[in-house]
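Reopening this ticket.

The earlier resolution said the output was attached, but the attachment link was broken on my side. Pasting everything inline this time so it's all in one place.
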Amino acid sequence: MSDQKINTHHNLSREQLVQFALDRKEGVIVDNGALLVETGHRTGRSPKDRFIVKDDLTSNKVDWGSVNQPISPEDASQLWDEVSEFIKDQETFTQDLQVGASKHYALKVRTINTEAWHSLFVKNLFIEQDSTLSLSCPQWTLLSAPWFQCDPARHGTHSDGCVIIDFTQQRVLLAGMRYAGEMKKSFFSVMNFLMPNAKVLPMHCAANTDEQEENVTLFFGLSGTGKTTLSADPHRKLVGDDEHGWTSEGVFNFEGGCYAKCINITEASEPLIWRAIRSGTVLENVVANNGQVDYADTRITANSRAAYTREFIPNCVQNNQANTPSQVIFLSCDLYGVLPPLSLLSIEQAAYYFLSGYTALVGSTEVGSTSSIKPTFSVCFGAAFFPYPAKVYADLLMRYLRESNAKVYLMNTGWHQGRYGQGGTRYPLAFTRALIESIHSGEINHVQWQTMPNFKFKIPEAVGEYTSKSLNPILSWSNEEEYWSNAGTLIQSFQDNFKKFDLPSIAQFGPVQETVGVV
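Inline output:
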């Protein structure tokens, strides 16, 4: 690809990219000023179409399997050349950006897109390139051609589209992929491979801090469990909503923007996100009627999204970095209604629940998902994006927890009073936020704790106005026997899932079946 092409547009502004998108009929402007686009039959990530080039650099390092699928260097190079040839006479949009807010760990990225709105997406989600970055800073290339069609028989792919990460050539290819989230997540996978070698823990988490930028909170969780919502706190400063690195010096954002779920959002429930959806924001697969958005309408997908720059959040940390975390919160959406709304974990328990990554697929980001939800275990709360064996990341987590003395909490943002679909209800957002505020205010440091039977972690007896009736899930069920029946099912699922790690030293800190008793 030559940057000298007449029909190549380089480093355009958001306003210019929006105008190109409109002129090219890629999308429309809706009532809040955002650019609304649709992504065709792929309305989420396509895990079966993601590959890593297997060569001398990756062969003995990557945890190969259904998540990290290998492709040969020859097939990858052939596809790259064919896609380059395919777009050579097309109008293209390039941006010079970076991934990673830390100068020590940043990547320079040249993005090449054939869609103006894709170029706007990466401009919002990646970071404006720092002109003072070292000349030795790694230079990567992202090439995206959503209208190219792969031939599985010829290209070694599984369908007409693919995502290929090539660590040796330092490039990422997206062919036949209109869903823009593939671009940001492919570079998350890149960072997840590169960072552990520098003793950086890459994390699928959001981060915010207090006004003095001293008290830092990390929120781990899968899509739909509350990372973006809970980190967008009007009383705290946002670092980022999805991807960060943790070093001995603190944390830094991998991204320069946010990719928020839009389903059912209102100005009252999520004011910062609501106001960030404006001119320059990309709205993906949101339904609009006569130009008016309807966030409750899921006829296209439950995974509707808003992609906006952090600049649209008024109270964000300017340098996109933060101090060492004071607390870490694992967000788990429990469909069984068994887990407490708030638990305190030891370092070993933190490793267990981090490796387990128990939650629910709620409006999943994966293509083909529906509005139905189901329980899942996702290693490191983001199994789809981590190339190394899980223990690599768990060891780094334990190292930094010990260094920082950060407290670790497991927070159930899912069901209580019964299981999903059988009489249970989801914990109200206001309740969850109140518990988080007790952590941020320090009130949680003065409560009395008790040990939860079978799970062995600690739960608070009372927090502010909330008593054990609200904080102990056993007491919230009308039938205690039914509670323990569901608890048994969940505990067995934890134990069955953890066998794959073959880590008995950590397994002993997970839940076990014991004599039933009320705390």
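Reporter confirms the inline version is readable. The radius of gyration is 23 Å. Residues 364-371 have pLDDT under 50 and may be disordered.
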